[in-house]
Amino acid sequence: MNAARNFPVVDGQISVGGVPLFQYVEQNGGSPLYIYSRDLIDKRVSLLRKHLPDAVHLSYAIKANPMPDVVKFMAERVDGFDIASAGELKTVLQAPMPVDNISFAGPGKTDMELRQALEAGVTVNLESAGELERLVLQGEQTGCRPRVAIRVNPDFELKGSGMRMGGGAKPFGVDADQVPGLLRRLADLDLDFQGFHIFTGSQNLRADLVTEAQGKVVDLALSLAEQAPSPIQLLNLGGGFGIPYFPGDEPLDLAAVGAGMAPLVKKISAAHPAARIVVELGRYLVGEAGLYVTRVVDRKQSRGKTFLVTDGGLHHHLAASGNFGQILRRNYPVAVGNRMAEAATETVTVVGCLCTPLDILADGVDLPRAEVGDLIVVFQSGAYGPTASPSAFLGHAAPAEYLV
Ligand SMILES: Cc1ncc(COP(=O)(O)O)c(C=O)c1O
């Protein structure tokens, strides 16, 4: 994997959108900052359109990167959005996306959130029987007809995933064996039943495992659909497409995923010609398009180890510090962004400015010698960056974000 290859280097300095890194820092009045590349997002969407069957709709899970500019940019490129809170609802309603193509998933939706979802007309992915009853009550109070899908917790998982979201006891979705009961309840209610949402896992790099899980998802959905009160209009197969973060990671073979989906799409369309088939992706769309840029504030030696102390850290980029769901801490790809033409000459540990041993951006990495003022770049940073980090911790300023 060579994450740096995605970004052009001019005179030894990474450049995004034709502008070198130092210029962003200057324009911003300092560092740290995140930079997201429109061009790389565009290329990623094109790759998906090229390899996935035409009938597959792309939904962007905005939790991966809810920066309003990114969401607006995405609105013109993908077919739908998935949201997880009233805050995200507000963000997507400001982007030009038809509400029919917006779904709201997540456990613990409050009555206020259900009401706002109803009033906006988005599809609520039901996480439990209790949530359905609360939604129905809100529907009666507002006079809005609920539009719903059932989020199913299958009895299998997406093997080899960084994060497993289905299989076993889970707070997400309705256990597959409880779904027939919920469908009977739906049949008694006046609401717009759309279909199913089955999200089995996240961050998977194995096309064969993604295809295997999708096959099981389709079989499960088709058998549940036989008990539905009306033909399904929507089948959200989940996502789970991963990106390479760590040494040894190989990119997902998207052509193989697409080939695996082709017969599944035929199978769904044969049984339910009106069903919109959706894959729901977050990091795969935006993760590789983003950089986190931070400046070296200090260089120091401690008992034989060289530390580069930066003005960034886990309060901006929890995932890169290894504290966002990773079991073993591994380094995200990093570089000295203004010394790309220089060879690595030393092994260093790059840390943030927080007074905690957790605040490591890269441990024991080989880099060209970096001086105070140089720019450390963390690649693969377009997803789960600022909004997945404890930005209030220790009272440092939030990082700036640029979509260029
Ligand atoms: C329901 C749901 N959809 C989409 C995603 C996005 O996952 P990813 O960014 O790995 O594609 C998640 C991640 O946890 C999720 O829970």
Describe the structure.
The longest helix has 19 residues, at 207-225. The chain contains ten helices and 22 strands. The relative contact order is 0.16. It has two domains: 3-36 and 287-403, Lyase, Ornithine Decarboxylase, Chain A, domain 1; 98-281, Alanine racemase (TIM Barrel). The mean pLDDT is 96. It is of the alpha/beta class. The strands form four sheets. Strands 4, 16, 17, 18, 19, 20, 21 and 22 form an eight-stranded mixed sheet that branches. The chain is elongated, with a radius of gyration of 22 Å. Bound molecules: pyridoxal-5'-phosphate. Pyridoxal-5'-phosphate binds at residues 61, 64, 82, 105, 163, 165, 199, 202-203, 239, 280-284, 383. Pyridoxal-5'-phosphate (PLP) binds at residues 61, 64, 82, 105, 163, 165, 199, 202-203, 239, 280-284, 383.
Name a few traits of the molecule.
404 residues; alpha/beta; Lyase, Ornithine Decarboxylase, Chain A, domain 1; TIM Barrel; eight-stranded mixed beta sheet; eight-stranded parallel beta barrel; 10 helices; 22 strands; 28% helix; elongated
Q: What is the residue-mean pLDDT, rounded to a whole number?
A: 96
- Reported by name, the CATH topology of the largest domain is TIM Barrel
Radius of gyration: 22 Å
Please summarize the sheet with the most strands: 8 strands, mixed
Shape: elongated
**Count, helices:** 10
Number of strands: 22
Ligands, deduplicated = pyridoxal-5'-phosphate
Please give the alpha-carbon distance between the first and last residues: 24 Å
| CATH class annotation of the largest domain | Alpha Beta
